[in-house]
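Quick one - first record:
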Amino acid sequence: MAKLKLDEVDHQILDLLIDNSRTAFTDIAKKLLISAGTVHVRVKKMEDAGIIKGSSLNLDYKKLGYTFIAYIGIFLEKTRQTNFVLQYLEKIPFVTVAHITTGKFNIFCKVRAKSTDHAKDIIFMIDDIEGVSRTETMISLEESINDKKRLMHRIFNEL
């Protein structure tokens, strides 16, 4: 499949959709002074090329009572246990992200909890998974950067 050529209009559409993926195509069209049909065609083209993959909803977990964030590095007894451990991690709803990594940890994950006691219980759940030899936890004091736009702008500057 040939690489899709993106232009400044695509860039502006993505910029607006990153801010709010639910923005109506008619609103995007008005802001960019183009037709809603053009927006629709451009978005469809980027979806078909796999550049846009669905849309997401951002929850304010603090307002839902989940104010504690921790990152947990997981050491495995054997690397071949990775998929087995990941299957069990998927069963723990408080594990919101998991990466297979190189370096110090075999798996690195993000956990959301209601409190330090709740986080302790989650860590114990992870420690109890067969194949996990130990974990190392880092507590997030604050999410300082969560910016989806900067990389997208850099990519467009390189085009």
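second record:
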Amino acid sequence: MFHINVCLKVKNPEDIAEIRELLERCQALSRQEEGCERFEVYQSQAEEDRFFLCEHWSDREAWEAHKEREAFSRLYAPLVMPRVEREPHISTLLGGEGE
């Protein structure tokens, strides 16, 4: 299993609603991809300009293939990434399979 968590902070408050919609679309598309075990997007209640992506992929190769799919290549990379500060964390699930 391959896990990545991404923290996003929207640069311009005027973009928050559109970023939220784009991330919801990315979530729906990503969940349909082969190798996607879990893909969740959260918006902070305390700071509405902050979003968190929690992704579980069957393996690193599935995650790498995700970068070529519509959710990442047509929505996330061109429309979201330029408008956010992004902090990705490849992670280990504690108490899980312990990669």
